[in-house]
UniProtKB/TrEMBL annotation:
Location of the J domain: 2-66
Cofactor binding notes: Binds 2 Zn(2+) ions per monomer.
Gene, per the UniProt record: dnaJ
GO cellular component assignments: cytoplasm
Subcellular location: Cytoplasm
Cofactor: Zn(2+)
Protein's name in the database: Chaperone protein DnaJ
Gene Ontology molecular function, alphabetical: ATP binding; heat shock protein binding; unfolded protein binding; zinc ion binding
Length: 387
């Protein structure tokens, strides 16, 4: 039957029109989609027609009235088409290309690498520069990445002729199906290395330990990853290196905890100081860096004003004493005042407190029940903060 009629195209149809018609019919009549024996026979006819019209030489031979398969090495209706063409009809490839994917490149980008770095809270907050020892693959200096011994070079694979693929033909009810597979001799590269470099055994890379300086920006948090472009694993065949990611792990601080860009801490004050009021000088988070830098901008302490009558659990906000933001600004320092009830009183102290209770009319307090102002999440937060 006329292949133009089978595909439903005009005799002057271009390759794109023929390709589109074949895909449509292949999806309709393929045995995996339509098990009807009539459809299977139709699929073989459509495949045979497409093989003729997709090949310029076979199409020209048919148009001249000759045998399009003369000298092709394959006989019979529906024989000799590539299995790749069938799959491309379903997945949108390039049917009839006949050349497969070709050799895969030997030169490729290297993999990214990940290393974890432990830092203190102050270092994460205000930034730090650290030296890291990293074990990665680097380009072999002996062969400069091509894997061949000095004075030699890779050669074209004799098995696949540099294509990186070899054709395998097998029979099925569809006829002879040709599939392309990576060449086993060259592993799909299209080239072999007769005399591999002794330093890297032909890989083009060697592993080594390097020392890098990484600058951790101010404001990073636990789990933040700092990217060092081009400092990862060297690529095969002398290809570019991947990136190195430094994941920050922030150690727990004895006094301060971080929530966003705010710092939280608590301070214990005597009952008398809470009642009468006082001013306390306390260290900042920056004080942790005092031994490492003598910067005049370093603020190592702040004054906390405890107002008269301050109750236990009162929060006082010290503006802009928190963690610098990665995009500017700075968080606050929230100080929770915890009032200590005196214990171990001697007789004179007890007498003074009795006198105070009498003066305030508090010898026999009745107490009043009140609804809690904190919900479940507030109580959980206080439990974690040790309140």
């Amino acid at each position: 039957m006329d292949p133009y009629e089978l595909l439903g195209v005009d005799r002057d149809a271009d390759d794109a029109t023929i390709k589109k018609a074949y895909r449509k019919l292949a999806r309709e009549y393929h045995p995996d989609v339509n098990p009807d024996p009539v459809a299977q026979e139709r699929f073989k006819e459509v495949s045979h027609a497409y093989e003729i019209l997709s090949d310029p030489q076979k199409r020209a031979a048919y148009d001249r009235g000759g045998d399009p398969f003369a000298g092709a090495g394959f006989g019979g209706a529906g024989a000799g088409f590539s299995f790749t063409d069938i799959m491309d009809a379903f997945f949108g490839g390039q049917p009839g290309a006949g050349t497969g994917r070709g050799p895969r490149p030997r030169v490729r980008r290297g993999q990214d690498a990940l290393i974890r770095l432990d830092v203190d809270l102050a270092e994460a907050a205000f930034g730090v520069a650290r030296e890291l020892k990293v074990d990665t693959a680097v380009t072999c200096e002996t062969c400069h990445g091509d894997g061949a011994a000095p004075g030699t070079r890779p050669v074209t694979c004799e098995t696949c002729g540099g294509a990186g693929e070899v054709a395998h033909v097998q029979r099925s009810f569809l006829g002879e199906i040709r599939t392309l597979r990576p060449c086993a001799a060259c592993r799909g590269f299209g080239q072999t290395i007769p005399d591999p470099c002794r330093e890297c055994s032909g890989d083009g890379r060697v592993r080594t330990r390097r020392t890098l300086t990484v600058k951790i920006p101010a404001g990073v948090d636990d789990g933040t990853r700092v990217q060092l472009a081009g400092q990862g694993e060297a690529g095969p065949g002398g290809g570019p290196a991947g990136d190195l990611y430094v994941e920050i792990q922030v150690a727990r601080h004895p006094f301060f905890t971080r929530q966003g860009n705010d710092l939280h801490c608590s301070v214990n004050v005597p009952m008398t100081a809470a009642a009468l009021g006082t001013v306390m000088t306390l260290p900042t988070l920056e004080a942790d860096l005092a031994s490492e830098t003598s910067s005049p901008d370093l603020v190592t302490s702040f004054e906390l004003e405890v107002r008269p009558g301050t109750q236990s659990g009162t929060d006082q906000v010290i503006r802009a004493f928190g963690v610098p933001g990665l995009r500017g600004g700075r968080g606050d320092l929230i100080v929770t005042v915890l009032v200590d009830t005196p214990t171990g009183l001697d007789a004179a102290q007890e007498e003074l407190l009795h006198q105070l209770a009498t003066l305030r009319g508090e010898e026999h307090p009745t107490g009043q029940l009140r609804a809690s102002s904190k919900g479940v999440f507030g109580r959980l937060r206080d439990a974690f903060n040790g309140h």
